[in-house]
Amino acid sequence: MSKVFAYRLVKSKFAQDAFTGDGARIYGGRWNNKGSPCVYCAGSESLAILEIFVHLEDYAILPNYTLFQIELPKSEINYLKPELLPHSWQDQPAPPETADIGDQWLKHCESLILAVPSVIVPREYNYILNPLHKGFAKVVKKAKVLDFSFDTRLAK
């Protein structure tokens, strides 16, 4: 079975809850509405950094992050077809249509992982994991913490 690596960057104080889906459930996101738990991951370390960086208001907290790497079973990834993306999928703030797509996928629980294009780098993928899927616990229990530090030049 072939694997895909994904990366999750979280504030260190929330590292123990990195794979609960609670943050997305409480706050919602581009691919889910409030009330729908899921776990957002990036397809590369650099994309994980960019996804956090674009939302930061205080760069002083950059050193307080923990980076996780997980292996995703390729057979469990459902790639969102580009023709299913609404024309406004990259808009800021995120349009409700993208959250509705994610919520429907989460609700039906047909696959563990939904691969969606990154708004920042559209040719790269972010991975949405469904914590209600039967295979979720097996995948996230193998998550590894990687050594990580932000290059201070990013905050200039």
What report would you give on this structure?
The chain has one domain (3-155): Diphtheria Toxin, domain 1, CATH 3.90.175. The chain contains four helices and seven strands. The chain has helices at 22-27, 45-53, 96-108, 136-140; strands at residues 3-11, 39-42, 65-73, 77-79, 113-117, 125-129, 144-146. It has a four-stranded mixed sheet with strand order 2-6-5-4. It has a three-stranded antiparallel sheet with strand order 1-3-7. Strand 4, helix 3 and strand 5 form a beta-alpha-beta unit. The chain is globular. Residues 18-143 form the RES domain.
Number of strands: 7
Q: What is the approximate shape?
A: globular
**Rg calc:** 15 Å
Q: Roughly what fraction of the amino acids lie in strands? A: 15-25%
Q: Poorly predicted ranges (pLDDT <50, ≥5 residues)?
A: none
Overall tally of domains: 1
pLDDT averaged over residues:
94
Approximate helicity band:
10-25%
- Decide which structural class fits the backbone: alpha+beta
Strand order in the sheet with the most strands = 2-6-5-4
Largest sheet: number of strands, sense, barrel closure: 4 strands, mixed
CATH topology, by name, is: Diphtheria Toxin, domain 1
Distance between the termini: 43 Å
CATH level-two architecture: Alpha-Beta Complex
Q: SSE order in H/E notation?
A: EHEHEEHEEHE
CATH top level is Alpha Beta
| Count of separate DSSP helical elements | 4
